[in-house]
Amino acid sequence: MASKNGSKPGQKGTSPAINLIAGGGAGMMEAFACHPLDTIKTKPRGFVRTGVEIVKKETPLGLYKGLGAVLTGIIPKMAIRFTSYESYKTMLMDKNTGKITGPSTFMAGLAAGVTEAVAVVTPMEVVKIRLQAQHHSMSDPLDVPKYRNAAHAAFTVFKEEGVGALWRGVSLTALRQGTNQAANFTAYSYLKQLLQDLQRDKLGAEHGGSNLPGWQTSIIGLISGAVGPFTNAPIDTIKTRLQKTPAEEGQSAMNRIMTIGRDMFKLEGPRAFYKGITPRVMRVAPGQAVTFTVYEYLKSILEKGREMMDESAYKE
User: What is the pLDDT along the chain (316 residues), one digit of tens a residue?
Assistant: First the structure.
């Protein structure tokens, strides 16, 4: 099925600056809203029980451990995600009709996910996971953590383990982000086009390409965001365990991945690969709902502003 969401011939596309600002704003809102769920996901205990224990021991601020690393990387991450996705989509779309097929949307999302994983996500997540995996009381001034903040964690990992440690698990992260964004953008684009077609049939052809109401964008973002975790949960589980601990001398990344996977299957069974799937879906799906809703909203405002500036410049 060909999507009609591509740019029409001669149509001016969204600028990288708009993708940067809209994506960064959307990412920051997503981080503030959903980061506590991500913190709870890294602890190997019950979801509600873990949240209560963190609040009791570390105060509610404990739920936001690692947020600095997320906020530091969120603007370049979202800039790369949306800008690269739009770039790959433009490369793959039919130049005559401006339309893009479902498989091409899938490939554009896959490439965008791999791009963001290598450029930003892997070092950002290594730092975040190290911060979240610490056990210390934020309410006790005498309990000094090994990693004080995101910058200190990055410096300590670099100093003690080398620059390569910040990209530990990059292959798994690229695989996870690639499959995530491929499923995410494909599902979102399909559902968005479906709702726009229904809107056009109901309100007339002139409304077919208009922006959807925010609540509809939130719903399709929620649905598309839930697809990825179910397809790559084993990858994410192994990746998290790989990034939590320093590498052993003489052991390659592939050997560590195989060892972690084999030990998980042998000691914990197949269900271990899907451990944490519930909090992960509860984290990712609402996050995508927030991201797409805020992104579409900010992008529409910025594009209207650009159109007004262009019209003003034309009149002059």
Answer: 556 555 544 445 677 788 878 888 998 898 888 888 777 766 656 677 888 888 888 888 888 887 876 777 777 888 889 889 988 998 998 888 888 899 999 999 999 999 999 998 888 888 888 887 776 665 666 667 788 777 888 888 888 888 888 888 888 889 889 988 999 999 999 999 999 888 887 766 565 556 788 999 999 999 999 988 887 888 878 877 877 767 677 677 778 888 888 888 888 888 888 887 887 787 789 989 999 999 999 999 998 888 777 766 656 5
**DSSP-assigned letter for residue 143:** -
Place of tokens 């910058």: 151
Dist. CA 173–CA 240, nearest whole Å: 9
What CA–CA distance (Å, rounded) separates 219 from 288? 10
Helix (H, G, I), strand (E, B) or coil at 297: helix
Sign, Cα dihedral of 43, 57, 126, 229? positive
- d(C-alpha 117, C-alpha 194), whole Å: 30
Please say whether the beta carbons of 166 and 127 come within 8 A: yes
Q: CA 142, 153, 122, 191 torsion: positive or negative? A: positive
Q: Which residues pair with 100 in a beta bridge?
A: 3
Residue owning tokens 């809107």: 199
Buried b (16+ CB within 10 A) or exposed e, 29-39: bbbeebbbbbb
Residue in this structure with the two tokens 């896959």, named with its chain if needed: 110
Cα 59 to Cα 130: distance, rounded to the nearest angstrom = 19
- Which tokens is 7 given? 């740019």
What distances in angstroms separate CA 111 from CA 86, 97, 125, one per listed residue?
Answer: 11, 23, 19
Write the DSSP symbol of residue 280: H
